[in-house]
Automatic annotation (TrEMBL):
Coiled coil: none
InterPro entries recorded: Bact_solute-bd_prot1 (IPR050490), SBP (IPR006059)
Species for this entry: Candidatus Campbellbacteria bacterium RIFCSPLOWO2_01_FULL_34_15
Protein name: Sugar ABC transporter substrate-binding protein
One protein family per Pfam: SBP_bac_8
């Protein structure tokens, strides 16, 4: 080893030790001193975060007066974050979406388990938060959850003599024939549900992910030092659960099937639901106010995502966590700030501001009087996600997988295998 390499290694070790000492000194969050300057970056609304931080500051004897928040547009966030960190001008804490964990993992200080144990994490947060757990520590602490739910048009259901929304996927076979209005040329005027295609179905990737996770397939999983893709796993069955799920999904766009209820010529599913032409719409809890605003006369209600009668009870959830930046000069106090922001008092205030369920397991398990929040809270407890290797590219892979099936270019098993191979290539790239 050259003298230069020895010096460089020494400097590197020195800064690691400084970070460890700083974290050990302040990581428990027990000091009554000010945390100093802690910059948080994210894509959540600035006015919302200002209200959250104002509450935190007003109840903490000026400890968190130095905490600031900067909102960045979602389309620019990844680039701005990477450039700022590389130039030494990055934040101390940033909001980490569940679909960007893999992308940003190398930028994060993993909180050691002797500081915050796995047991405490699992007891505190809803299950989807466990995506942030690694062998080396905790990448982020859950902050918000936006579960996928089912919106249903009450007028369409009443018109067809149906009293309640479906709870299970196998109910869709009879419902589609009863509700869908189509002519002999396969033109659809009223549709039961937007399933079977990809391009004009809002949240198609998340709907497909829900179906796959309900079979017990995690889609991807961590190994000791990398990731595995599990799309084609058979779980001991002759036909893989993924194949069964995609067979169910794609038949709704097949004109020769009795359940035919969707095609590419229709407007996207959000517009169809707002127009009163779609009976069931799979969207996120956060869309409730938007749907009301865009069509105040639409008579709809909410229900939990349908399930299989024998599978795992799952819905997809969009989650944001709070992560400490590895390059922060204030690691210990950044961690203390995150602990304060994920305190139940703050989380319930955040929930009241957003009309979304809290990420706290204890809070989301409480009964609420509001009929919409009741569904949101229950959905939060069953929310899951997966370790997305590259959210834009996997969306294209899912799109190609569905298109190759419905076009007849590939058998379902072949389309799944190709999608898995392409996702594996993302790992090794």
């Amino acid at each position: 080893m050259t003298n230069f390499q020895i010096v460089l290694t020494g400097i590197f070790v020195f800064f690691i030790m400084v970070g460890v000492v700083l974290f050990a000194t302040f990581g428990k969050g027990g000091s009554s001193d000010s945390v100093g300057s802690v910059a948080i970056w994210g894509t959540l609304d600035k006015d919302l975060m200002t209200q959250v931080l104002d509450k935190l500051k007003s109840e903490s004897d000026n400890i968190y007066d130095g905490v600031t928040y900067r909102q960045i547009d979602e389309e620019n966030f990844n680039q701005e974050l990477a450039e700022a960190i590389s130039s030494g001008k990055g934040p101390d804490v940033f909001m980490l979406p569940q679909d960007s964990i893999v992308k940003h993992e190398d930028k994060i200080f993993a909180v050691p388990y002797d500081t915050y144990s796995v047991r405490n994490f699992k007891d505190k947060f809803i299950e989807e938060g466990e995506l942030y757990l690694t062998n080396s520590g905790i990448l982020a602490f859950p902050f918000t959850i936006d579960p996928m739910i089912m919106y249903w048009n009450r007028d369409i259901f009443s018109k067809n003599g149906i009293a309640i929304a479906p709870k299970y996927w196998d109910e869709f076979f009879a419902l589609s024939q009863k509700v869908t209005d189509k002519d002999k040329d396969f033109n659809i005027f009223t549709s039961l549900v937007a399933l079977g295609d990809y391009q004009n179905i809002s949240h198609a990737k998340e709907i497909i992910s829900t179906l796959l996770m309900q079979t017990g397939n995690p889609i991807t999983k961590r190994t000791d030092d990398s990731f595995d893709v599990t799309l084609s796993q058979t779980a001991g069955n002759e036909i893989s659960p993924t194949e069964e799920a995609l067979s169910f999904y794609t038949q709704f766009s097949n004109p020769v099937k009795p359940v035919y209820t969707w095609n590419r010529a229709l407007p996207d599913s959000t517009k169809s639901f707002l127009a009163g032409d779609l009976a069931l719409y799979f969207g996120f809890a956060s869309e409730l106010s938007q749907l009301r605003t865009k069509n105040p006369n639409l008579n709809f209600d909410v229900a939990m995502m349908p399930q299989t009668e024998s599978g795992n009870v799952v819905t997809f959830g969009k989650m944001y966590g709070l992560a400490v930046v590895k390059a922060s000069k204030n690691i210990g106090h950044s961690y203390s700030t995150i602990q304060a922001l994920t305190n139940d008092d703050v989380l319930i205030h955040l929930s009241e501001l957003t009309n979304l369920p809290p990420v706290s397991r204890a809070l989301s398990s409480k009964e609420v009087a509001d009929p919409y929040l009741d569904i949101f809270y229950k959905s939060a407890l069953i929310s899951k996600g997966w370790l997305d290797l590259n959210k834009d590219e996997t969306s294209e892979i899912f799109n190609a997988m569905i298109n190759s099936i419905i076009s007849g270019r590939k058998k379902i098993s072949e389309a799944i295998q190709q999608a898995e191979d392409e996702m594996i290539a993302l790992i090794t790239r």
